């Protein structure tokens, strides 16, 4: 185990790790940051971190968790600059990105069509994990799954659930049964057959599922709710759909 003390904002490693707060650099380096000990403890069961940053006052507390891994030690004023959290827990780890291109031939998947809220994105990934779905497919214009807020909301599920990227046009050409969540011309979810291989599409929080996907859909489903309520939060709706898909 080796550790390196970082004392200056001019240090090359400080500058390098700080870049991962920006989406551009995460994708350039194919790495994303994970904050906190709980997610780190779960993540290392599946992947090896490329870098670990520790706040100097937390080194002793996380000694057993770190094991024989190398890490950087930062004073608080520098550590807080590489953290996205308002209340940093003193450990940040950096892992290789987990997504891959969708090429599956069977299974049950959620497709997130331009989901814009990072918290919703993370919640849906965690929900897919809870109900043992085959994976989550992300559309081209959804928010970044590697946004630190998304990662926090997944509570490490991003390391367990297969994550795929798939453009809208590729989804439309896919041979899977496509089911979309829609308020109009749709059947209540409990009346629908969700057996077999399928992709269920969750639409954008404000605009719903795109017209192209609606036209391609094999089935439109809805969750019956009171007339006085316009719609459900995307994360809540995904949870209900995922539960029905898991039966």
UniProtKB/TrEMBL annotation:
Source organism superkingdom: Bacteria
InterPro entries for the chain: Alpha/beta_knot_MTases, MRM3-like_sub_bind, Ribosomal_eL30-like_sf, rRNA_Methyltransferase, SpoU_MeTrfase, tRNA_m1G_MTases_N
Keyword vocabulary terms for this entry: Methyltransferase, Transferase
Record domain tRNA/rRNA methyltransferase SpoU type: where: 109-243
Coiled-coil regions listed: none
Domain MRM3-like substrate binding: 11-92
GO terms, biological process: methylation; RNA processing
GO molecular function terms listed in the Swiss-Prot or TrEMBL record: RNA binding; RNA methyltransferase activity
Family stated for the protein in its record: Belongs to the class IV-like SAM-binding methyltransferase superfamily. RNA methyltransferase TrmH family.
Protein name listed in UniProt: RNA methyltransferase, TrmH family
């Amino acid at each position: 185990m080796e550790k390196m003390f970082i004392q200056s904002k001019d240090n090359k490693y400080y500058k390098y790790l700080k870049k991962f707060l920006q989406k551009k650099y995460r994708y350039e380096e194919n790495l994303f940051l994970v904050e906190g000990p709980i997610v780190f403890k779960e993540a290392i069961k599946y992947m090896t971190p490329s870098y670990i940053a520790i706040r100097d006052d937390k080194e002793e507390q996380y000694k057993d968790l770190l094991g024989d891994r190398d890490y950087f030690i930062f004073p608080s004023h520098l550590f807080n600059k590489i953290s996205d959290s308002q209340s940093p827990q003193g450990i940040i780890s950096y892992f290789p990105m987990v997504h891959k291109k969708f090429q599956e031939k069977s299974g049950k998947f959620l497709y997130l069509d331009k989901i814009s809220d990072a918290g919703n994105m993370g919640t849906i990934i965690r929900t897919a994990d809870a109900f043992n779905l085959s994976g989550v497919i992300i559309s081209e214009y959804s928010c970044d799954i590697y946004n630190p807020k998304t990662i926090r909301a997944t509570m490490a599920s991003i390391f367990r659930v297969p994550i795929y990227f798939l453009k809208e046009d590729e989804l439309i050409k896919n041979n899977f049964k496509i089911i979309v969540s829609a308020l109009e011309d749709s059947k209540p979810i409990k009346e629908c057959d969700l057996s077999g291989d399928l992709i269920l599409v969750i639409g954008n929080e404000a605009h719903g599922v795109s017209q192209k996907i609606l036209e391609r859909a094999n089935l439109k489903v809805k969750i019956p709710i009171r007339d006085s309520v316009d719609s459900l939060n995307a994360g809540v709706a995904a949870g209900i759909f995922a539960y029905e898909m898991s039966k």
